């Protein structure tokens, strides 16, 4: 599992917490991803760690998470996606067919079907594909009728993508893929390894319409949680934690309110996520925004349009923020 990136698009939240340790409603993202893998029989995972590895080690000191036994591979410098796969696979002793997942993807993909498709096609690698409206921020993957990958185009310029089916960030790979990856330097699986496999006709892909979201941006970090309380992925999850305090006259509409949050009277929270221990002052409005753990929004302030307030940061009373980062420039 690739979990070593800097989480730049989710700064400032990721300045203190790595992306995959950010909460999705009631538990860290990584627990949901590992739980989905475990449901398909995965018992062991090597975490490809780089940025803030201690956050993972501290959270799972006995090396178990969501039914999966964890092994840790910590890069001394970022090796990029393929370099990280090679380093983690070798340190985990992998010498047979294995699964790679991007740790920021929440999906109901049928991993067992992907595995069987891979074996059935005698492929060296198989990628899960998902359809998206705007493919330009993903790896775009046109295929032949039998599923063979014709091209792998990472993050094409807007309007130039040959299809809207994109790399869903879940792969089944043969151990031979590891021999393709240079040792000890940065290698991108999307820009280097997959294009080389395409040229040798050994890369396949399976189209899937299952629920899928990459929770790595403010918009998708928010949407991934609203989908869960809306019941888009099964029975609706509880939106407001039992330990949150909502004072009389406050309005909570289509939002996730995590443990220990306090929302004072007259405040309005819509389409937003309030992380644990955050506090919203009287008459403040929080719309389409994310408030970090322990952060405080002052009375009467308006926090709007995908503003992200960092953990333990404060928004003064009476200000208006639109699409802002707090602190600024983070
Ligand atoms: N260990 C380690 N080392 N992990 C890394 C490194 C690294 O140097 N760089 C990135 N990662 C991890 C990230 O933490 C994340 O879990 C995963 O690799 C993918 O990186 P992102 O930064 O989230 O990539 P992306 O979302 O822009 O694009 C990737 O995912 C898309 C699907 O969500 C690509 O694989 C695209 O092709 C794909 O469509
Ligand atoms: Mg991502």
TrEMBL record:
Pfam families: GMPPB_C, NTP_transferase. Coiled coil: none annotated. Gene3D superfamilies: Hexapeptide repeat proteins, Spore Coat Polysaccharide Biosynthesis Protein SpsA, Chain A. Residues 239-326 form the Mannose-1-phosphate guanyltransferase C-terminal domain. Residues 2-228 form the Nucleotidyl transferase domain. Belongs to the transferase hexapeptide repeat family. This is Unannotated protein.
């Amino acid at each position: 599992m690739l979990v070593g990136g800097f989480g730049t698009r989710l700064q400032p939240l990721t300045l203190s917490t790595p992306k995959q340790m950010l909460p999705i409603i009631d538990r860290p993202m990584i627990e949901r991803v590992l739980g989905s893998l475990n449901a398909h029989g995965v018992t062991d995972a090597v975490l490809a760690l780089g940025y803030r590895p201690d956050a993972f080690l501290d959270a799972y000191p006995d090396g178990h998470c969501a039914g999966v036994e964890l092994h840790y591979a910590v890069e001394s410098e970022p090796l990029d996606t393929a370099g990280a796969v090679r380093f983690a696979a070798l340190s985990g002793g992998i010498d047979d067919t294995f699964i790679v997942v991007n740790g920021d993807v929440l999906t109901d993909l049928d991993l067992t079907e992907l595995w069987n498709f891979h074996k059935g096609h005698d492929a060296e690698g198989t990628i899960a594909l998902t359809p998206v409206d705007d493919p330009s921020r993903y790896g775009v993957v046109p295929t032949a009728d039998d599923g063979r990958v014709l091209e792998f185009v990472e993050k094409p310029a807007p309007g130039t993508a040959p299809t809207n089916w994109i790399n869903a960030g879940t792969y089944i790979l043969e151990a031979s893929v590891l021999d393709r990856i240079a040792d000890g330097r940065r290698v991108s699986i999307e820009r280097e390894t997959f294009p080389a496999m395409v040229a040798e006709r050994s890369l396949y892909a399976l189209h899937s319409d299952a629920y899928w979201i990459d929770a790595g941006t403010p918009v998708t970090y928010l949407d991934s949680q609203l989908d869960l309380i809306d019941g888009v992925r099964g029975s609706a999850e509880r939106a407001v934690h039992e330990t949150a305090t909502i004072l009389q006259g406050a309005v909570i509409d289509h939002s996730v309110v995590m443990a220990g949050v306090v929302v004072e009277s007259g405040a309005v929270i819509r389409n937003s996520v309030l992380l644990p221990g955050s506090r919203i002052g009287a008459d403040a409005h929080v719309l389409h925004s994310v408030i970090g753990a322990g952060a405080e929004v002052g009375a009467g302030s308006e926090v709007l349009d995908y503003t992200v307030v960092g953990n333990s940061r404060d928004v003064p009373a009476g200000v208006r923020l639109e699409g802002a980062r707090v602190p600024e420039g983070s």
